[in-house]
Fold:
Amino acid sequence: MLVGLFVVMPIAGTALAATSVDFSQGPWGRGVTLDWLGYAWAPLAPAVARSLGVATLVVGINLLLGGVIAWRIARSRSLVSRAVGYLVNVPLAVPGIALSVALVGTFPALRPSGLLLVMAHVVLTLPFTLAALVPVLADESLRAAEEVAASLGAGSALVIRTITVPACGLAIAQSAAMVFALSFGEFNISFFVNPPATPTVPFALFDAYSTGRLELASAQTVIFIAFIVPVLLAIVSIQRRTRRTDP
Amino acid sequence: MSRISASGQRGAQSSGALAGHVALLVSLAPILIFSVYPVGVLVANSVGLGAVRSDDGFTLKHYEQAITSGSVHVALGNSAMISLGSVAICLAVVLPIVLRRARPRRRGREGVVAVVEHAILTAPIALPGIIIGFFAIVLVGRTGLLALVWNGFSGVAYLFGGMLIAYVYFSLPRVLGPLRAAAASLDPALAECAGTLGASRLRVFATITLPILLPAIIEACATATAVALGGYGTVATLSAGVRLLPLNVVNELTTGYRLADSSTLAVLLAAIAVLSIVSGRVLSRFSRWAVSRA
Amino acid sequence: MTTSALRATDHSGLAVADVTIRYGAATAARRVTLDAAAGETVAVVGPSGCGKSSMLRAVAGLVPVSEGKIMIGGRDVTRERPAARGAGLVPQNYALFPHMSVAANVAYGMKAHRIPSLRRRQRVADLLELTSLTAFGERHPDQLSGGQRQRVALARALAVEPKVLLLDEPMAALDPQLRGALRRELAQVLTATESATLLVTHDQKEALALGQRIAVLRDGAVVQFGPARELWDDPADAFVADFLGGSRLEDARLEDGHALLFDGRWRVPIAGLRQRRSAHRGIRVLLRAESLAVHDEPNDDGSALDVAVVHQEFVGDAAQVTLRAGDTLLVARLPLGVRLGTHARVSVRSGHADLLVGAP
Structure:
């Protein structure tokens, strides 16, 4: 309970600041207002649009590449696939800011187009997709179901479409939500690779934190949290559902 | 299985396997190009062999500089204390929660309440570090909310204690998640059985629950420490306060593009993080072995 | 009755008196009363969900009792912690401590009871001997077979010299092929112990083989509790007869030398029935598979019953047929080689069925 309070208090405080006319005069100092949220939205809107676009793109690429890699890792026990498992997890071990320096030092030319940002997010989020997909794909009963479908005359494309993908449904939904949330709020790996003229939401926030008024920065933060909460609830409810169907 | 169908199947399988290998290669290539390869370049840059070729080829002078630099020493010390300290606090807070949950399920606590509770405790994982830093400013910054309650809180965000609490917030879900999973896989019958054999609750904890969970605890803490160590966002927002190592990495690049120096610090940061994870794995294995010997 | 009352006052075993267990709104056990004397094995049997596991967990102190009393060794332990009850539990999945060797598992309870290490070691050796595990003392649970795990769990529970030994479905985690042999081994260990043993199972064969007395539970209540033979010969109701023996218990009316079954549609000559006094009310006929003769020629004296043939299956030395009379299913045995059509007639084989006569 106390821990819950610890987690919620700063969020509530930020909401308080975002709706105060003058927060330096105390909570709701000189009255309650929604003006800050309005002021915050105008400059933040293009960044939100960009971030949504990037996150969607990252989810798409991630599921495509991650699906294939997870499938190979799950279905083969060779040394190669185990090595692949380790290599793909490199971004989990290497801090984002270090990877950011590495990426900008390697591909500076790709930075302005935004390609480097998207690929950085894909690389960073891929381990989460694999963690969700590999166990499901390696499941014996799924493989048995696939074999039965094949023995009934289904071609491999049909088997994948009608048996494999539906069985991975929850895992796919979970990784999509998780990847989306991670990409939408990503700051560390993005630091040196995001196109400077067209910031994503976290950079707009960072800018507000260093230069803006506390109330305005709070308002932008509240907007960000409002975008992330539905995704978070989705992740949690999916997690609970998988746990329930697990045993 | 008849011989004919076997050979037919083998043919189909090998062509399928080939297609599989090709698909793997095609999907893996972009990943490796944007993760493993840049890390290689990063290391090359730090020793004067990469994009920033030094005049005399291979050199360790950047490492020499980094290791002898006073500001790196201070930042490294702070980073170590903040990351280890925050994870230790998280563990102390989280362990009782996790163990309470792991006890034989009480009925009637499922449903909406549980989802919301879980969501609240998981929330910080979806919040970027910068926001957590900003939370510290809102609560215990110079004009923070708690500073109004008691003036002593004013500006704590920029002190060691404030930074530590911010990183506790950051690490909380990263310790909680893996421990919750480990505790959920613990068979409640073990503790029950130990209880019926005459063991007190403290004894059950010390001889059953803790030894079985210990490897998972060690591993989760080591990983969370590595993540906290490399976390840049929080300290970026609070950069006016305590210096941490990721700040130095960034500074080398933003104040006069010194790629080689920045790369060197990035390599050091990564090495420490990797070392934390690897030593966590090793310790975890060792603890499993030691517990089963005892 | 008198023997059961005597046992309840016996101070060395287990007595459960009027125990009710509730989980929120659901009732898992309703006014359950049973007892087990020292050295005796009582089997609690019933279909899944009948509350038998809750009963056992209540005795162990793992679920709270809403009403009633639990006595172990003459002491009221209803509100005691599990640790202080003197019960040795063998849970369904055995719950061996995975991080400890077999010997450490067995020694666990003795350490908790602060038994000096010399005596502890001696007793561990004795118990490993008793359970034929001497060679496995240094192994870890994941290196053992299912049967060996069961014996470790048993030795671990016996090590604390419990007043009551609690076995929760001891065979459920084992391969069906192994159960026969392991049941014999378990029976040997149980006869060697002085604890009162409460064994919970859904398998009537196991209950009959291991329990000196049996309690049949349904929907959280005891339907019948008594010596195994008594339940077999004189079941309290059709459920007990069916669950324990797979037999049919039908109400009967006596009329000029005949027992009338199925509302008078079937007139069975009393001369062909074994008559026995029953502790339960009414007049009833107990029909087992071997009680019935099946034939297809017509018979007009009413001593045979028209039935529909539902199913026939080969069971080795004979065929087993399932027959339907009205809405009752009867099971009979048929010599090999006899084939039935869709309809047949059954009569009672003389001297192979029981007439149970109770108080009116």
Observations:
- The interface with chain B takes residues 23-24, 60-62, 81-85, 87-89, 91-93, 95, 97-101, 108-109, 112-113, 140, 156-157, 159-160, 166 of chain C (CB under 8 Å).
- Confidence is low (pLDDT under 50) at residues 1-8 of chain C.
